[in-house]
Design a protein that fits this description.
By secondary structure, this protein is mainly alpha-helical. The protein folds into 2 domains: 4-84, no CATH class; 99-406, no CATH class. The chain is built from 13 helices and 8 strands.
Length: 407
């Protein structure tokens, strides 16, 4: 084969210095040449490798080489071998999570709803044979705290450090979380699950009132107007709810107020800590807050006959397993809710919260066969529709604010 000397020639647009000229014949193959990066930006010529981020030129066809020393042959062969087993395009393989983000987000929503529905069903079934909401509230948090401590032990996730200043900020949040959690469970134990969630649909109204009169934020008239159907719907549902009693209604209202203040204190306690660690610390503090009232209000009854009655009705194994699983589902659905809402936009967040309440109310009616009057059904539907309208308007307002700040 004809041999020739390449001096100052180019390989795919890359000039070879004259001193590197070699005599080429048909004896051996030169490895694929790739250009990574711009030469003006200190780009690298790599034999058979890619640096990221990369702007790759097409690989050159093999060029025959002779008059190369054994040392040069060994160096080139060693450098070229990894490339031959790599991806032909030199790009990174795309994982399933990156390839189908919408599908993954949908799965998160499904698990959030599924765990929430299962929690509400098991929770209500426990109250049917063990009507002690203060103690059950403690179990919810206790199981979650044990789960968090076990996760920290294995480093999934790694425990974030906490100091006295951060602790002072988190205590009010955790106290409101504890009060809201206990009163929610008191309401669940006293009335139908569907009715408690209908009353809790008023939470946006309390949030708007707190923003206006406590934080001093101006709430637009359209936002207030959207809350009118919520108030009307809850009032209609309450008047004809077959399981209505004042303990359940007032407890659900206190829960709304407590969670509203939790939101206020949460804004003041903004930290760089990830949501998983933050929720773990709040759960630990809330558990400490919930234990004293459980002992005071239910302790004597539990020791006297509460535990014995429950064990006599369902057996020790089922009683313990029910308490364990209701605690696990409580913690996991709250954690999944946080992780899910971090992945979506405010409008999707709003839709998700409304649909979750619809799912819980619907499945609780099916699971327990609760009879509801026509007026209760209409009132519940109006309340949920009002929450949806409010959530859409508020989400759009937040999106506009964010766009204005970005601009």
């Amino acid at each position: 084969m004809e041999s020739r000397v390449l001096t100052g020639a180019t390989i795919r647009g890359l000039a070879l210095p004259p001193k590197l000229a070699v005599r080429l014949t048909g004896n051996c193959s030169l490895p694929t040449v790739r250009l990574s990066g711009k030469l003006t930006d200190a780009g690298n010529l790599i034999w058979g490798r890619q640096l990221r981020p990369a702007i790759l030129l097409e690989p050159s066809p093999p060029i025959a080489v002779s008059s190369v020393t054994k040392r040069e042959n060994f160096r080139l062969a060693a450098a070229s071998s990894p490339a031959e087993s790599g991806d032909s395009a030199g790009g990174a393989k795309v994982g399933f999570l990156e390839k189908y983000p919408a599908l993954v987000t949908g799965f998160f929503f499904f698990m959030w709803y599924f765990l929430n529905v299962i929690f509400n069903i098991i929770n209500k079934k426990i109250y049917n044979y063990f009507p002690y909401p203060y103690f059950v509230s403690v179990i919810h948090l206790f199981v979650g705290v044990v789960y968090c401590l076990a996760s920290w032990t294995v480093g999934l996730p790694k425990r974030a450090p906490i100091d006295s200043n951060l602790l002072k900020l988190l205590i009010p949040v955790a106290v409101c979380h504890a009060i809201g959690h206990i009163t929610s469970n008191v309401s669940f134990a006293a009335v139908a699950v569907s009715f408690t969630h209908t009353v809790k649909a008023l939470e946006p109204f309390f949030n708007a009132a707190a923003s206006q009169f406590i934080l001093g934020q101006q709430i637009p008239f359209t936002l207030w107007l959207s809350l009118a159907p919520v108030v009307i719907g809850v009032s209609m549902a309450s008047m004809t709810e077959l399981s209505f009693n004042w303990t359940g209604f007032i407890s659900a209202m206190i829960s709304n107020i407590s969670f509203t203040y939790r939101s206020i204190y949460s804004k003041k306690a903004m930290t760089d800590m990830d949501s998983t660690n933050l929720y773990a610390y709040i759960s630990i503090i809330a558990l400490i807050v919930c234990i004293p009232p459980a002992i005071i209000f239910e302790g004597p009854q539990l020791i006297k006959h509460g535990f014995n009655d429950a064990i006599a009705k369902v057996g020790l194994v089922k009683f313990i397993s029910d308490l364990f699983w209701v605690g696990m589902f409580y913690h996991l659905y709250n954690q999944l809710a946080t992780n899910t809402l971090e992945r979506v936009a405010p409008l999707t967040h709003a839709v998700g919260n409304v649909l979750k309440r619809v799912f819980v109310i619907g499945f609780s009616i099916l699971a327990f066969g609760n009879k509801i009057s026509l007026q209760t059904g209409i009132g519940t539907s109006i309340a949920i529709a009002g929450v949806a309208i409010y959530s859409f308007i508020k989400a759009k307002m937040e999106e506009e604010k964010r766009q204005m700040k970005a601009a």
